[in-house]
Amino acid sequence: MKVDLEKIDQLRARIDLTYEEAAAYLEAADGDLVQALVMAERDLLAEGDGEATGGGGQDQGWIDRVTELVKRGSSIRLVVEREGTQLANIPVAAGVVGAIWAPQLAAVGAIAALASKCSVRLESPSPGSPGQPGQPN
């Protein structure tokens, strides 16, 4: 049976798969959408992923997103400079935690930096540099 994009989209709408994975399941199921869904769900449950159950998988997805945001926030730096001298160079994640922990202090610091003609910029590491996802540290 023919595997087309519509069936792949239908399968992906029901379970979190890549296009390649969805096409592979549909081909293995000879184009039968229900059978492909059963096979994918079985494999995901066997892996202990749990996303196919709709229960704990959502929590894990949320945790994975927060972890990814913290990693990205740690790689991006907040740099405060005045007349070419660096006054602060901290990870954005630390700045966000500080702003949550002491928002008044963060606001006063930001106003003081701007009032004293400091420049504030965000620096992200260039793609492919060490420490980037998929790159060796």
Please characterize this protein's 3D structure:
The protein is α+β, with helices and mostly antiparallel strands and 137 residues long. It has helices at residues 5-14, 19-28, 33-46, 56-75, 92-101, 103-115; strands at residues 77-82, 85-91, 119-123. A three-stranded antiparallel sheet has the order 2-1-3. A hairpin with a 2-residue loop joins strand 1 and strand 2 (85-91). Helix 2 (19-28) packs across helix 3 and helix 5 crosses helix 6. 8% of the residues are buried.
What is the fold's blueprint, element by element?
Layout: H1 5-14, H2 19-28, H3 33-46, H4 56-75, E1 77-82, E2 85-91, H5 92-101, H6 103-115, E3 119-123
Antiparallel strand pairs: 1-2, 1-3
Helix pairs in contact: 1-2, 2-3, 5-6
Poorly predicted parts = 131-137
Number of helices: 6
**What fraction of residues sit in β-strands?**
5-15%
Largest sheet: 3 strands, antiparallel
Distance between the termini: 46 Å
Helix-strand topology string? HHHHEEHHE
Bulk shape: elongated
Biggest sheet: strand arrangement:
2-1-3
Query: pLDDT average, as an integer?
Result: 80
Which structural class should the secondary elements be placed in? alpha+beta
